[in-house]
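Hey, can you fold this one?
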Amino acid sequence: MRALACVVLAAGRGTRMNSVLPKPLHEVCGRPMIDHVLASAADLAVERRVVVIGVEGEAVAERFPEDVEAVVQEPQLGTGHAASCAAQALAGWEGDIILTCADIPLLTSATMAELVSHHRARDAAATVLTMEPDDPTGYGRVVRDTAGNVVAIVEHRDADDEVRAIREVNTSVYCFDAEALSDALQRLSPVNAQEEYYLTDVIAILVGAGRPVAAIRTPDADEAMGINTRVQLARAERIARDRVRERVMLGGATLLDPPSTLIDIGVTIGPDTIIGPGSSLVGDTVVGSGCEIRSNVTLRDATIGDGVLLRDHTVIDDSSVGDESQVGPFALVRGGSSVGNGCKVGSSAELNRSDLGDGSKMQHFSYLGDTRAGARCNIGAGVVTCNYDGIDKHRTTIEDEAFIGSNSVLIAPINIGRGAYVAAGSVVTEDVPAGALGIERGEQRNIPEWVARWRAMREGRDRS
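Sure. Predicted structure:
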């Protein structure tokens, strides 16, 4: 088996994006375009991955895994020059090179593998991936002879009307014999409308040298679509998300309203999970099996166990929820918090940098900040841990089986011992020992017949 390397061209300025962000870093389905391309190449088990970046490409290179090699193209003299920069990095490489661009994020590893297989089966010096889009404007046309053999690729701006009438176009994805590519690149010249070194001219050079050039046409023009504008980016986003939703449903999850459900490419969802309309699952979210995620739930970098119920409008952000727990509605779990197994978190409750132990209950309108609550605790409605003194954050510890009565305020730093009780309505500023009752309230005072006197006073004021 011949060795395989991958070259990704990512040095273009992407001026039509009208953005300070480098084009390869614009996201599709939750990941930068360059990540999609590198991941597809990695699925082919390529031995080397080389990315050509521009002089301002440091931000792009920061995304690369350790085994990806970055090559700087300076000055930027066209795609042929960019390929020459990569060829220098691959000097002495014996085998095949699959070459693609960072702005083709929808290209799958399966299509890449088919391209390589076709290339090797025909013992070609170069193989071009082609397509027939609805509108070929702007694409280089694939010119064939009367026998159907590829003889050249002519860029749109350099083509006459006859060539522009050709429907088959270049996708800018190729497979090359490494030696043949290196030889052809040395023969490029910038005699064209752009006065640049075109990679596409390599095809005519190889044909002129009697080297075999093959082509394989993808039936899915969307897959090879290049992204040059925000409009094209939005179209790629729709296509990528449709793919993800299809993959999720084929994996056994139910989407009650697929078009309204946003799921990033990095999300995994177990079978028999039901997801309601308007929900967003983004980042590196993992959802277990048999869950019920109701409408307008947001999961961001969240880990959700099996059999979990997330009620409407719940948000889990960079946090986890254990098996068989229930959260919401309108609850917020954030800041690296964790909800244990078999827990219940009520309506409009919030955890921030806090942990709720297995079997514990946290009732509606409660807030835990910088808190560690143990197992089988009861956090009553309206309970607040006051973690911030205006300068520093402080920790609260609630040990196993503690009971915090409704509307209580725990002033951190504080420790509530195992099995201790805090009476409802208390403002607690000191530790409560295990098994003790903590209570801090103002003494109740009842004034007899106060209501009648107050009403009489009001009636007299109203007459005047």
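The chain has two domains: 4-224, 311-438. Let me know if you want another pass with a different chain boundary.
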